[in-house]
Amino acid sequence: MSNIIEHLPVLQIVVPLVAAPTIVLFRNSTLSWILAVLASWFCLFGSITMLNQINGGGEIPTYLIGGWDPHVGIVYQVDIANAFILTLLSGISAVVFVYARTSVRDEIPEAKHHYFYAALLLCFTGLMGMAITGDAFNIFVFLEISSLSGYALIAMGRNPKALTAAYRYLIMGTLGGTFILLGIGFLYMMTGTLNLEELSHAVPHYAETSVVRAAFAFITVGTCIKLALFPLHMWLPNCYTYAPSVVSAFLSATATKVSFYVLLRAMFMLFGAALIAQAKIFLSFVIFLALIGIFMGSLKAIGQDDVKRLLAYSSIAQIGYMVLGLSLDNADGLTGAIIHLFNHALTKGGLFLVMGCFMYRLNSTKIKDLAGIGKKMPLTMLAFTIGGLSLIGVPLTAGFISKWYLAMGALQAGMWWLLVLILLASLLAVVYIFRVLEAAYFGTPEKEHDVEEAPFSLLFPTYVLIGSTIFFGIWTEPMLGAARKSAELFLSSGGAL
Amino acid sequence: MIIHGITIILFLFLYVIAIVIGRSRNLFAAVMLSGIFSLISACLFVIMDAVDVAFTEAAVGAGVSTVLMMIVLNLTSDRESPPVQPKVFPLLVALLTGGVLIYATKDMPAFGDPEALIHQSQTTNHYLWHSFEESHIPNVVTTVLASYRGYDTLGETTVVFTAAVAVMLLLGHVRESETPPKLINDPIALVGAKMLIPYILLFALYVQFHGDFGPGGGFQAGVMFAAAFVLHGMVLSPKHTLKAAPALIIEKLVALGVLLYAAVGIYCLFKGGNFLEYDVLLSHGEKPNPHGQHIGILLVEAGVGLTVFAAMLTLFYKFALRGKA
Q1: A405 three-state secondary structure
Q2: Which among A112, A125, A189 has the least Cβ separation from residue B169?
Q3: B322: which strand partners?
Q4: Least buried of A50, A85, A460, B236, by fewest C-beta within 10 Å?
Q5: Which of B118, B121, B159 sits opposite A144 (nearest CB)?
Q6: A116: which chain B residues are within 8 Å (Cβ-Cβ)?
Q7: What is the pLDDT of residues A376-425, one digit of tens each?
C-alpha cells in the first residue's frame, strides 16, 4: 500500500465493510464493540482529512475502483458535499458507537450482541457508501445494505410493537428503493452511462423525454419515502419510538440525512435546472408539502405522551425545514437546508441519546414517568434542555444558524410570509419542549424515583453530541463554510446545460 | 415472428398469474404461483438474450425462495386471514405507478434498437470490444459483474450477508424444537433425492467455474449448492443436515465469503494497485493483464458463491429448525 491517503476514499467504505463480517466471525460482545468503534473512528479521521483538504482549496483525486476509467467502472469523486456528509455520518457514529456499549448491554440479549454490532456497522457502511459514491447504481446497492440492516435493527426494540414498526418500514422502504432503482434504470436507458458526472452532462439533453420525466418522478418519490417527507412519513414515528435507544439515535441522525443528500444530488446534479425550471409549479408544491410537514409534525409532537415519539414527530417537522430550504432554489435557502441537515443530526442524535439514558435508568420515556426527574438526574436533564433549545433554534445554539439561513433564503426568494410561518413553527417547538421540561423540573412524581444519575459511559457521549450543538452554534465557520460551498456547487452544476 | 408470439403469450401468463396471486387467500397456492411467475420471467429473460439473469431468476426466484416460503408456511398457516375492509388507496398508488410506467414508454427506444444510446455508448462499446483482450474471458457478463463493476458485486454480496445477519439477529436464539417437523415424508422422494443430491452438487460446481465461458457464476452456483442441502434437510430431517453442515460453521462461511472478496481487493492495494484492481495480481507490470484479471475474477466469484450458499442454508436452518408456534 503505497500511500494510505491516496486510497482514503475507498477505505472509508472498505474498513467498516470488512469489520462487520469479522465481528460475525469472532462472536464476542466486547471485541465487536471495539471493532465497531475503531472502524467509525478511522472513518471520522478519514472524512475530516478529506474535508480539510477540500476546504483548504485542494482536491481529492478521482478514485478509480478496480483501476477502470469512469465510463467503464465505478469511481469515487469526493467533492465538498460528499466530504461534508461523510464527516457528519462518521462523526455521529464515532459518538453513538461508544455510547452503544452500556446501552446495548442493557437492551439487547448478550447472545445477539455480535449480530447487533455487525448490523449497526453494515448500516453505517451502507449510508457511507451512498454518500461517497460517484455512480448511480452503486447508490442503490449501498441503499439496500443500509435499509436491510436498518429494518433488523429497528425490530430489535424490546416492545413487540417494534416488529410491526420495522415491518411497515420494510414495506415502505422497499417501495422507495424499487422506485429509485426504476429511476436509475430509466436514466441508464436514455444515456448509456451510470457515472453521476457523465449523467449530469447527458440527462439535460433528454429532459424533454417522457423517460427522463418518469425517472425524475420515481427518484424523487423514492427518496422522499426514505426521507419521510409528508405525506410519506407514516413509517417514521413508530420506528423511532420502538427501536432500541442506540438505533433511534443513530438512524434519526443519519438515515434521513443521507436520503436528503441523495435527493439534493438527484435534483440539482442529475436533473438540474433544465427539468426543475419546467416545473416551477412542482417547487411550489414541494414548499406546500414541506410546510404541512413542519406544522403537522410540530402539532402532533405537542400531543404526544412519550418523549421518543414526540422527538420522532419533531423530526418530521425538521425534515420539512430541510426540504423547504431546498425548494427555495437559492443559495441561502440551500445553505440553510444543508446546515440544518448537519445541525439537526447533532441535536436529534443527542436528544435520542438522552432518551437512552432515561431508558437505562427508568425503563421508560413517557412524560408522566419523567415527572420530577430533574432533581434525580440533573445532568441528563440539562443535556435535554440544551438539545431542546437547539431544536427550537435559540441563538448561540446550532439550531439558530440553520433557521437564520432558511429565513434569509425565504427573503431572497421574496417570500416574507414564510418568515412568519417559520417563527410560528418555532413557537410550536417551544411548546413541545417545555411540556417535557415542565414535567421534569416542576412535576411531582407519582411515586418517588429511586434512581441515580445516568452512568458516565452514557453521559459522556451524550454530552459530546449535545455540547457540539453549542460548539457549532458559536464556532460556525468551518461547517457553515462547507455547507455554503456545497450549496454553490449544487446550484452551479444545476445550470450544466 | 414466432418469438413475438411466444413473448406475448408469456406476458399474458404473467398478468394472469399476478392477478390470481393477488386475489388468492390460499397462501400455499400463492407461493407456488409466485414460483411459476419467476420461472416464466426467467423464460422471458432467455428470449431477451439475458441468460445469466434468467439463470439467477430460475435458481433464486423459482427455486430457493419458493422452498423458503413453503417452510415459513409450515410454521404458520396457509390461509390468509380475510382483510378487514377493501383498501382503495393501495390500488390508487398501484394504478398511478402503472400510469407513470406506461407514460415512460412513450419516448423509450424500441427494445433491441441498435441506434439506441444504450447500445452506442462508450461504456457498452468498451465492454463489447475490449473485455476479451483485457481479461480473456468470453462471457462479457462475467467480466462486467466481477471486474468492471466488481465493486457493485462486492456490495451485492454484502447485501446477502446483511440479509443473513438480519435473520440471525431476529431469529437468533429462539427455542429450537427438539423434533422439527418433517417436511416431506415419502420414501420415493427420499430415494429420488439421494440419487439427485450428488449431481446437484456437481452441477453447482460446474456452474461456479464455468461462469467465465457461459452463463453462471457465484450467485447461481451458491444457490444450487444450498439447494442440495435443503433437499437433504427436507427428505430426511434438518437435524440430519446439521450433522453434515453444522450451523455455526455455515454461519462463519457467510462472513468468510464476503471477507474473501474484500481480501482480494485489499491485496490489490498492497500490490500497489487500486482496490479490486486485478491487473496487479500475478503481474510483471504489464497492462492489460488477463492473467491477473482471471485469477481475481475466479477468487471473488468463489467469495460470492460461498456467501450465497451459506446464507441460503442459514435461512433454511433458522426457519426449518423452529417448532410450530
Answers
A1: helix
A2: A112
A3: B176
A4: A460
A5: B159
A6: 169
A7: 899 999 999 999 999 998 889 998 999 999 999 999 888 888 889 999 99
- How many residue pairs bridge chain A and chain B with CB atoms within 8 Å of each other? 183
**Is A20 in Cβ contact with B155 (below 8 Å)?**
no
Residue A355, Ramachandran bin (φ over 0: left; ψ between -120 and 50: alpha; else beta): alpha
B155 contacts in chain A (CB < 8 Å): 129, 138, 141-142, 144-145
- Mean per-residue pLDDT of chain A: 90
Question: Across the interface, which of B117, B156, B162 has its CB nearest the CB of A149?
Answer: B162
Domain layout of chain B by residue ranges: 1-108, 116-325
| Amino acid making up residue A488 | E
pLDDT digits (tens, 9 = 90+) for A172-226: 999 999 999 999 999 999 888 899 988 888 888 888 889 998 998 999 999 999 9
Which residues lie closer than 8 Å to B246 by C-beta, 6 or more apart?
Answer: none
A279 in B contact zone (CB under 8 Å): no
Whole-angstrom CA distances from B88 to A371, B92, B94 are 44, 6, 10
CA atoms within 13 A on the CB side of A376: 20
Spatial distance between the Cα atoms of B250 and A397, rounded to a whole number of angstroms: 51
Q: What is residue B79's three-state secondary structure?
A: strand
User: pLDDT of B247-293, one tens digit each?
Assistant: 889 999 999 999 999 999 999 998 888 999 998 888 777 778 888 89
pLDDT band at B177 (very low <50, low <70, confident <90, very high): low
Class of domain B1-108 (CATH, top level) = mainly alpha
Convert the pLDDT of each residue in A57-77 to its tens digit.
Answer: 888 888 999 889 888 999 999
CB B117 within 8 A of CB A187: no
A322 three-state secondary structure: helix
What does the pLDDT average to over A228-238? 89
**3-state SS assignment for residue A63:** strand
Positive/negative CA dihedral, B118, B120, B121, B124 = positive
**Residue A259: all three cell numbers together:** 436520503
DSSP A397: S
DSSP state of A75: E
Question: What does the DSSP assignment read for B18-39?
Answer: HHHHHH--BHHHHHHHHHHHHH
Tell me: pLDDT of A165 over 90: yes
Residue range B114-118: average pLDDT? 84
Does residue B217 surpass a pLDDT of 50? yes
Higher-pLDDT residue of A317 and B288 is A317
One-letter identity of residue A115: Y
Q: Which of B26, B21, B52 is nearest to B36 (CA)?
A: B21
Q: Report which DSSP code applies to A74.
A: E
User: Quick one: cell of B73?
Assistant: 408456511
Rounded CA gap, A139 and B193, in Å? 42
Alpha-carbon gap, residue A139 to B247, rounded angstroms: 33
Highest mean pLDDT: which range of A412-421, A426-435, A441-450: A426-435
Q: Give the C-alpha separation, A333 to A96, whole Å.
A: 30
Residue A64 touches chain B, beta carbons under 8 Å: yes
Separation CA B60–CA B273 (nearest Å) = 35
Q: What is the CA radius of gyration of chain B?
A: 22
Interface test with B, best of A115, A123, A193, A218 (most B CBs within 10 A): A115
Largest CA distance in chain A: 69
Which amino acid, A293? G
**Which string of DSSP letters, residue by residue, matches B123-182?**
HHHHHHHHHHHHH--S-HHHHIIIIITHHHHHHHHHHHHHHHHHHHHHHTTPPBPSSPPP
What ipTM goes with this model?
0.94
Task: Categorize the per-residue pLDDT at B62 as very low, low, confident or very high, splitting at 50, 70 and 90.
Answer: confident
**Angstrom distance (rounded) from CA B88 to CA B47:** 36
Supply the pLDDT for residue A60: 85
